Each structure stands twice: as C-alpha cells, then as structure tokens.
Amino acid sequence: MPVTPRPPGGASTLRAVSRLLSIAQARELVRAAVAPLDDERVPIEAALGRVLAEDIVAAHDVAPFDSSAMDGFALRAERPHTPAGTTLPIVGESRAGRPADRPLGPGEAMRISTGAMLPEGADAVLQVELTTEDGERVTLNEDVPPGRNVRRAGEDVRAGDVVLRAGMVLGPAELGVAVGAGRAEVRCARPPRVAVVATGDELVDPGEPLGPGQIHNTNATTLAALAMQQGAEVFTVTGAADTLEDTEDALDAALSDADLVLISGGVSVGPHDHVKDALEALGVEQRFWRVALRPGKPTWFGVRDRVLVFGLPGNPVSSMVTFLLFARPALRALQHAPFDVERRAAVLTEPVARQADRDEAVRVALATDASGTLRATPTGPQGSHVLSSMIGAAGLAIVEAGDGDLPAGTVVPVEPI
Ligand code: AMP
Ligand code: MG
Q1: What is the DSSP letter of 63?
Q2: Global confidence as pTM
Q3: CATH code for 11-38+190-334?
Q4: Is the CB of 217 under 6 A from ligand 1?
Q5: What's the 389 CA to ligand 1 centre distance in angstroms?
Q6: Whose CA is nearest to atom 5 of ligand 1?
Q7: How far is the CA of 201 from the centre of ligand 1 (A)?
Q8: Is the CB of 266 under 6 A from ligand 1?
Q9: CATH 2.170.190.11 for the 67-151 domain, yes or no
Q10: Per residue in 38-73, pLDDT tens?
Q11: At the fourth CATH level, which superfamily is domain 43-60+158-189?
Q12: String of b and e for 19-56 (b: at least 16 CB within 10 Å)?
C-alpha cells in the first residue's frame, strides 16, 4: 500500500503524486508497524546493553542499615555535641559485615570501620585521624555532634522505590542499581533478530583484492554493527547479485527467520535495482518508498506479518543515515524502549547550504561551549559516498529544505548518533 500524502486542501492531486514523504511522516509509518517483542528473564551478568522490560522496585532500603562513613570510633553524642577533649573507654568493635556483639551506652566508644553497622545506642562517629588512643581509651580531638559521619539506612534508595524504568538500556550503573535493589535477574526484551542483505554486483568481501569496477562491501559491516549497537542479534549477513532471482533468493532466506531485515542498495530506479520487485514477489507490503531527505531519498519500508523490512540506499552514508532515522527507532521500540531518540537543540557554527526540496541530515560534531550551549559543526564534505564524514559525527543535524544558506548561529534539532 503506497502512501501518498495529500496536499493541504486536497485540490491538486497531480502535485500530491510527485510529493515525497517528510522524515516525520515516514517515521510515523514505521512507528505504526512496530509490535514490541516478548520479554524474557536475563541473569544480571548477561544483561549489559539489554533493554529493561519491567520497572525495578527496591526490595529493601539501600543502604539496608545505619552505618559509618569513616574508620574511627562510634559513640553516643551529647547535645549539642560531645566536646573535644572527652576521653571514653573502648568497649568493643563493629566491622564491615560483623556488627558489634553488644549495644553501646552513654560515655562509651567502639571501634568502627567504614560501612560497618552503627552499634545500637550509637549516633555519631569520629574519624580515627581526629582521635588519640592508648588501646583501652580514646580521646576525641574535635567536637562530635549527633549524626556526624553517619549514613542513614535508605539514604540512597527506599524500599518500594522504583529505581529503574522499563525501556532503559542497562549500562554498568543500571546493573549495579538493580543488584543493589535485590535482583539477580531482570526481564528484558528479546533481542530483535536482524538479517542484513547487501545487494550489488560490484561488492567484494572485506580484505579481498579489488578487480576493475569493484568496491569493498562496507555497508554489510556498518549496518550489522549499527544493529548490534541497538541490541539486535544479527543472525545472518549475506550478499545478492543484481538479478531478480538472486535478490529474491537472498531476501526469502532473510525474511524466514527475522524480526527486521536491513537491505542495502538496489532500491532506486536503475535497470539493475531489483529489491522492490523481489519484495513484492515475496509478499512484503510496501508502506513507503522515497522520503524528502538527503542523503537517503530512495528509502523503502514495508512489512510481512510482523517482519519489518527496510530497503536502504546503497551509498554508504545514506545507508547509515537512513538506518539511524528509520531502523534505529524500530529496533528500540521492538525492545520496549521509546521509539524516538531524544533530539537536542544545537547552534550551527558555520553556514550550511540548504536543499530546495529535501530536508538534509548533516553529520555534525558536537561540543558544549563555556556558556553551556551545544554547538554543531559539520564534519566536512557531506556527499553520500563520503563515509569518512561519519567519523567523529556525534549527531545528525536536521536542516530543513529552503533557499540559500542556513546561517551560522541558527539553532537546529540534532539527533544524537
Ligand atoms: P545502489 O543503491 O545499489 O544504487 O548503490 C548506490 C551506490 O552505493 C553505488 O555507488 C554502489 O556502488 C554503492 N554501494 C551499494 N552497496 C554498497 C555496499 N554494500 N557497500 C558500499 N557501497 C555500496
Ligand atoms: Mg546497486
């Protein structure tokens, strides 16, 4: 079902036929096609980079008990403080993991370690550096008010607090917080199964010598890596020659076992572009073809059952940019994460030439200046074949179609890479 947006008012249908979808319209069609995958239990040690499919609630306070922030001596402080110069008998010890075997009374002190449970009756700690002791008695060299150097139970997290939300990506800190909340396993979305098919007679595998007219197949590597970075399991990466038969065979195999298929090249209007015909023959229903975007105009998207199929243009930058704009949100949403990547506003540091009829995704380096303003600098020549323009790019600045240059100083939305 090809989608053609109607012009406002709906009068000029002739114009509507030739008008391309905007980036936002195309993304809405992708969003509508995504059904989140099932989730599964994942042991915490295997959960790095996975997307959480449940809220994590703290099973107990973190920290679970009142403890000492210092190595030193615990005491029961007088109000407003026990004065410097006070000498107290040392009546026991509380070590980390080995609480004292008796409570502490007024006028007594106990040795205590950082992280050790505060003995019953104690309410303050003076660090060892500020004391003098003779083995049996300790003298305080500073005033000690109640609460000094005490970490209260639940200071970090309270029992019952939601510490992590569904949709969050689990990095090292999130994993630690989950463990602190009492968890040994978490529910995560099943990793999307992704197939990559690179079409083109000119393509040669990495490291192979190049014959006349041949190029290395960079897209197979970049697309698989981009998908893996989004938590996908890339289970097959194949090539297809520029014939309908070969393209259909490769796509048939990819479709059989995938949640999402990434196709590079062969999606334009040349006589050797067979991807659209092959997909049609395989029963993949077109949702859109062509977007008012540079680079990436020929982008194609369709579905078969629950399988999402992206036909990405072959130019190396185009395929990366269109992956980021259309396939990345789909992979996120499949895993229960928000579809949209949060855009940031950045100030252009140099003028950017606008396209008259298409929005442009300009690869930019990002830096925050002294006043806290995010500044975006294009990463050099922006041709869709200039793959090096992706190196050092931290974002895609979306520069809307228009006449002439967009001047330096203009604020543009930036989609982080
Ligand atoms: P296509 O979209 O098939 O018309 O290809 C557009 C341009 O991208 C051509 O210059 C192709 O040689 C190049 N290209 C296509 N596929 C790849 C690939 N997998 N790796 C690198 N370049 C490619
Ligand atoms: Mg081609």
Answers
A1: S
A2: 0.83
A3: 3.40.980.10
A4: yes
A5: 16
A6: 314
A7: 10
A8: yes
A9: yes
A10: 999 999 999 998 999 999 999 999 999 999 999 999
A11: Molybdopterin biosynthesis moea protein, domain 2 (3.90.105.10)
A12: bbbbbeebbebbeebbeebebeebeeeebeebbbbbeb
